Amino acid sequence: MNTSKAKETLLLYRGPIDDCDPQFEEALAHARGDAELAQWMREQSKTYGTIRSKLREIEPPSDLAEKIIRNRPIPLRRGWTQIIRKRPTSFGRGWTQILQLAAAIVILAGITAVWLSLSQRGRHPLVQGQEIVVKGEVLDMTCYIAYNMSGPEHAACARDCIRKGLPVGIKGEDGKVYLLVGTNWRRGEPLNSQLAEYAAKTVTVKGKVGTRDGFAMLIDATVVSFGVETAFPEPVVDDHDIARVALLVAGKRAAKR
Amino acid sequence: MSVDPEFENLVKLYYRDLYRFGFSLTRSEADACDLTQETFYIWANKGHQLKDLGKVKGWLFTTLHREFLQMSRRQERFSDEPISEVADNLPPVAADVVNRIDARTMLGVLGQIDEDYRAPLVLYYSEDLSYKQIADVLEIPLGTVQSRIARAKTHLFQLLTETNHRSHQST
To answer: Is the pTM of this model over 0.90?
Structure first.
């Protein structure tokens, strides 16, 4: 490794926090034998520390923590908190902004009411097409549509929601999302119980593709095959985080006592 | 209202870091407060799904960043850019030059950096996150994180040098 290459690598080196990162090993070894590069590193490190401390001088408003804690949603049952939750109020908006927002809501509500009254005069036809096969991730449609929650981090909640009978869907490999409607849904069809264990995993289903008011669905859907792979890699764990969580758990235990 | 000590501890542990990250992204105190509050709000509803509590910090930062992206309705485009020649173009900025700049001015300077580059740069400077963790938080590839930080750092140093020259001229 030459000095230029070492400098390029060490541009990202922050000090002890990166000591365990193998990408810096060779460049650090080179710097130990190059006085000029070592001096450059010391200056970089000092500047890094100064910029870091400047950024960490920024303090949030004094009442922020209290407001967050006060607005904590109170869960009734695990997985059902979003139904009763009260959204936190927004910070520091001027009255002009609030009035503008209120006016916009009133106008939109008016337009929506007119649109609804006009649209409800007719029926909402179901457009049904040919049978298709879709391979993709099993979704809990409520959390996906409302909060854009999916993937393995959301798998446990999705499993609970699907098991409880909330709408189940599938996100195909092309990114298209379908609501899944089973063959005997009026009599408590087995699709939810079949798919609950496969939340956030890949399965293949077939059904007649249909739409109502723009919502895509697979009607008379049946499972063709169950996959096992998940779509996303697991993130890494950091020692600092483990220590912090240990503090959290200790705090919780102390509070219980 | 009953207080959940676990939730309270978590808020007190991370709200400053999240606020700083939110403030550096939005450059607005109100928006940073909203993002921080919304992040904990989502945690209160969805945090139980996180099986490994060791990942809580990354989860919170990812959630805040997602909320920010939703707020600004931006479409991310990912690409790997090489870092080559960035180190040679890095203008020398001494620590005492940075010391003369206050935190608000520093944020103003950061605000001039494109948002795609600003987010990894802020995490690089202000949080004890590894490059892999920064990549996880921002949901972009590791190589992209490193190249963006290198370029953003060069841009930041250029802007700091200009700010320093301007303050010299005015005095």
So the answer is: no
